[in-house]
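Journal club side-thread
Mid-discussion, someone asked how the predicted structure for our own chain would compare to the paper's figures. Pasting it here so we can look after the session.
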Amino acid sequence: MFFVVQVLRKAGWHRPTAVACGLLIAVSSAGFGQTTYYVSGSGDDGNSGRSGDSPYRTIDKINSLTLQPGDQVLFRRGDTFRGSLQIRQSGSAGQPIVVDAYGSGNKPIMAGSVVLSNWNNIGNNTWQTSCPSCGSDVTGVYRNGETMPLGRYPNLSDSERGYLNIQSHNDKTQITSRQSLPANFTGGEAVTRPVQWVLDRATITGQNGNTLSLADNGTKYRPNDGWGYFIQKHPATLDQSGEWYYNPADKTIRLFDNQNNPNNQQLTATVFSEAINLTNVSNVTVRNLQIVETLTTGVAVNNGSNVSVSGNELKNLGTDAVTVLGTGSNLLVENNLIQNVNNNGVYIGPYQNVTIRGNTLNQIAMVPGRGGSGDGSYTGLQSLGTANVLIENNVLDYIGYNGISVFSNSTIQRNVVSNFCLTKSDGSGVYSWNGDYGNPGGNRIISNVVFNGLGAPEGTVNDFYAGANGIFLDDCSKNAEIINNTAFNCKSKGLLLRGTTNVVVRGNTSYNNGEEQIRLGYNEPCAFRNNTVQDNIFVSRTPNQLVADYESYANDLNQYGSFDNNRYVSPFQDVFTIQAVWNPGSGLTGKVLTLAEWQAQWNQDRNSSGSPITYSQQTISQTGPTGSITRFQTVPMAGVFGRPTVTAGSTGTTATDSTAGRCACGSRRLPISAIPIRWPLSMSDRCATGRPIRCSSTALRRRLANGCRYTCGSASAAIVT
């Protein structure tokens, strides 16, 4: 108040007036309108809550308050608060409502779980307790803060990572198992893998022998014969220490444990949907909290603007860590640690002005069947934002499917993404999609480092297909930039584009990716046009890795855009580096070309070059008594990398190579090499039986060896000797 009087005097006011008094009253009212509320595990909801010496105790008390702009709600560090904080009031510009911590020590814990007690041993190393506050589902049980596994059959540790196989199916409502089932699993849940990139969950409504009846789960995918499935959420699945099952009918939880008495430990179960829910609000900040053990989401924002979520630790969450749904703008998700989440780390709806910066995400969607069905699940950071989206300086490690997935008008820069596609396949470290042709593009992918895309082949038919790419612009993506990125050690492609238009690929390094360093893959509805591929370095570390693959169903590779000043490097085999697939009018033709042939035939890469240095491949032929190498043997390059020419016609496929060998496709024998060979990609073919084969790219291009088989649609092919 003294300060205000001094200001008035300097402005020429020498004695109090009605105006001055009114101003003083207004300033005082504004100051008193900003209240700080304290919450402590040792507090009392009957306290004033206005100081650390007189704090409230519960989240419910805070939910009963009508918060005002500028108010703060502070939770004491080191304490645990169970429940769901519901913020329904808004702050204002410059005076947000703030949820924060006070005191010293570890961040306060906001838990969506309840403590389980009074466990009874019901025999066979199985314990049971009631959970009266549990609802229709439990998504997590934790022992001393550590996640315990949901029971499943077969176990995750079994062969094929615990997948059975579907013998036959009837639409989405029935599957018959190829393997015998040891129990009646009615009431449990079947998790099917209909395609590489989906895990679907459906309740088992009945069982007749090895045939399971399934509830319609609402997804568009149907089970596929030969593909994988497993069973969870049934008491008959419990056979490993720590596995649990929840029965919603009587609200009991069973635990298999042959090592510990759960009454001597703290076990908790998820009950509250969200730890913090912000609905129809603006100008709210949530920071410096530890958010754990929720039924679904850690922090849920619905129709919010000017919302900040920063400096939090979000761990052990039943579905997602942060979800932002509905509509809104001006969102900041910054400097959070997100760890051990069943589905998505961060999911953003169609918002504008979104910044996701400086977050660390690891162990996201690592367990099959715990994430959501259909598309849009098992992802680190997923944004459907439509304008001014910035995703930068994040670190993502151990991700079930895509690391970062965006829609449009997004800048993805200086992120590090590693160890992804561990639960599902046919994804990438950085991904965008235009399958419904409604995406205007505008994405800029700049200076990211993406590596160790590993793939999850178990539960699939073509189980050799890794489907883990570095950067992937899928299904007719357009108007994008991929600049100065590094992609390495991915099982599939470093850079993968399918049917793109107006995409710039410049200044990238793609190294040691298992199939190709760059691939432009044909996508039938969309022709490649107006793309720029310049100033990149593509390096195949081993001779059985292709450097580049450019494919078309037409005779138009020279119309794909501008390719120039690239370096195509294969130091152990610097001759045939670029695979081209095209249709000259007589059918698809695939050929692995030298750089000079590619330049001459398609008038591309006029100023590009190959390996600056080459090496002979060596094998160890003799070792000394201590294991030291005493002799190398040079392997001729002609014997390591064949040069096939493959064409497709109406009567069958022909393949020629300089070395011997036979390929069986139906009853037809084709001369090919028994060493690595490049097949044309995404091509339709017919075996001698006339049965059509529609193959994925990798099904038509894989490393072949004596006696090795692959399945291609409903037919198969094999190398025979």
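Post-session note: The mean pLDDT is 85.
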